[in-house]
Amino acid sequence: MNKFDQIIAAKLNSAEYTADEGMWTTVEHQLPLEQASGSSINASLYGGIAAAALLLLGFSSLPTLNNGAQEKVEISTIDEEKTNLDTEPNFEMNTIEIAADNEHLPQENHEIELVSLEAISKLKTPISNTSNSKKIEEKEQNINEGKDKKNISESFSGEADAIMLDFKATGIQCIAKTVHFESTELSYSLKWIIDGVHVFEGNSCDFSFNEPGEHEVVMLADINNENYSVKKSIEIFERPTPVISYSVASSETCFEQSIELSSQPGTNAYSWSLESEKANGSNVSIRATEGRHQVYLTAVSPEGCVTELVQEVFVEGGLKIFIPNSFTPDNDGQNDSWFANGLEKCASFSVQVYRASDQSLVYETNNFAPWNGNIKGTSEKAVRGEKFLYRIASTDNCGFKKKISGTITSL
Are residues 133 and 223 in the same domain? Predict the structure, then answer.
């Protein structure tokens, strides 16, 4: 057994092995390559020249995009059958939808387009399987006894051309996402070699790539005691790795503060959320009250790969309203009236106070007049231990509305 056969046998008969990239590269160079005839080369050359001319003519009529907005673009194509040197070209109009910038959609599970690196190739590999070896011995015995008139080499002549062997892939073309490889023919004994290192057995296999770029997938099939291979490549894309920065623009006349959020690079599509606040874009502004908050970011690359991040932000400052929960309307000069401090900084407000016992309105105002304990519409005054309910509706100078309610006790 030569060195070539030893390497292939090791690949076929072992699910786990130490990869020798140098040896495997040597094997790949020894696999048969497809040859292109002179006529096919000439056809490709002339076809390429014609296609280039058509593309240049088509692209010259393309309009430009206005501010990245989505618009329909009319592309003209030439009807080659009706075009000659003596007549005017006849144009057929095709409509193509072009998406606006930064509107990338996440990839969904789909059938992945693979690039064929090598069609069905027959490998000269010894079969270690006992049952297969037995079949070969029986065939040789039949030939020696004259029971089989065909030579072994003749029996397999033209076999590679008649064999239907192929595979497909489905999944998401992003790192750390699962891709499912499956043979289109389910009657063969198969092995899979991914990037020359990872080996699997069966009619299908699942694999998650950890590196972006082109990856090689080889499917090996045992057919009629002979080994065949199909080699393809799959492209895997990197997930976005956004860098987040933020700043807080404080204002003492607004309940909520403005969080200025930014993420780079700008080629990705970004969606932000903080509780009920949502925004899209590389640079956004989200409002939040004082305290610690978690901002959630979803980044989608142009290829549809997704990354989700959480950024903690801390907000300080802002308009605050202090509302006393008690007062002593006894005219002693101390704490005789009740009012919510901070309302004077609001653009507008209204205050209502109700008696807790019967929910009757005892006080209301939309100016800065504090309540002195007098019961509206009567000569009564709040007595010690009596409870009241307040309701405040206010609008700050940033247009944000806030409603507050609670209780007051007369002491």
Answer: yes
Q: What contacts 326, CB < 8 A, 6 or more positions away?
A: 408, 409, 410, 411
288 within some domain: yes
Q: Which residue has the tokens 């007049």?
A: 369
pLDDT for residue 297 is more than 70? yes
Lowest mean pLDDT segment, chosen from 59-68, 265-274, 390-399: 59-68
Contact in structure between 405 and 381 (CB atoms under 8 Å): no
Q: Is the pLDDT at 174 greater than 70, yes or no?
A: yes
Domain holding 267, by residue range, is 243-315
Amino acid, res. 198 = H
Domain shared by 297 and 258, yes or no: yes
Q: In one letter, which amino acid is 52?
A: A
Mean pLDDT score, 145-150? 44
The closest of 185, 182, 188 to 168, measured between CA atoms, is 182
Residue 389's SS3 state is strand
Residue 2 lies in a domain: no
Query: Cβ(348)–Cβ(340) under 8 Å?
Result: no
Q: Strand ranges (DSSP E) for 316-411?
A: 326-327, 348-355, 361-365, 387-395, 401-410
So what's the pLDDT on residue 4?
42
Residue 390 to residues 182, 192, 363, 375, 404, Cα–Cα distance (Å)? 69, 74, 9, 14, 8
Task: Give the C-alpha separation, 281 to 98, whole Å.
Answer: 19
Sheet holding 348-355, edge to edge: 326-327, 401-410, 387-395, 348-355, 361-365
Q: Would you say the pTM of this structure is higher than 0.85?
A: no
